[in-house]
Amino acid sequence: MMYSVKELADMADVSRRTLHYYDELGLLVPAVVSDQGYRRYNEASLLRLQQIMFYREMGLELRQIRTLLDDPDFDLMTALRSHREALQDKVRRLQQLVQTVDTTIAHLHGEIAMSKKNLFSGFSEAEQARYEEEAVANWGEMASDSIKRWHQYGKARQAEILAEGGAIYEEIAANMAAGPASATIQASLKRWHNHLRYFYEPTPEIMAGLG
Question: Is the pTM of this model over 0.90?
Fold first, then answer.
């Protein structure tokens, strides 16, 4: 069975422009191009697009994906098993993060005691390093300085800072009905402004962007 660009785009929930771009890169070439210039894709195209989307989910660049898929030694079943293992690891990590969120909420409500170490359960060092690289790439020197400042605190101090921030957010949320001009909210916002100094200097421009 053959599929048009629109049919494949709808099926995979990607844009037609994306499929055209993949064709230009030689990443996903149509099985057939009609005399009228219409692209047509077959079952093999669907499986290749699935692999592209799996590798994109893993953070690989398009040119890296093309190199992998075009390798004569590439084996689809081996790749699928590898994807399954990686996804299972990700599911386990996300489940742990959900548990950490739930435990932290209960801790901030005074329902349970929570150790400093458990504040960081489920966080992957590799993922954190990747996020930091992205932050530096997107925000430059300010992000780099903020990351260095954060790492200088050490785990115990980081836990205290996070707990303080959580308490401020809870305080603001609990008093929102009083309105932004109320003395209570203004006091909380001042605490929040000071809290941001643990990460970076909150200039008026930055505060305007956050607001």
Answer: no
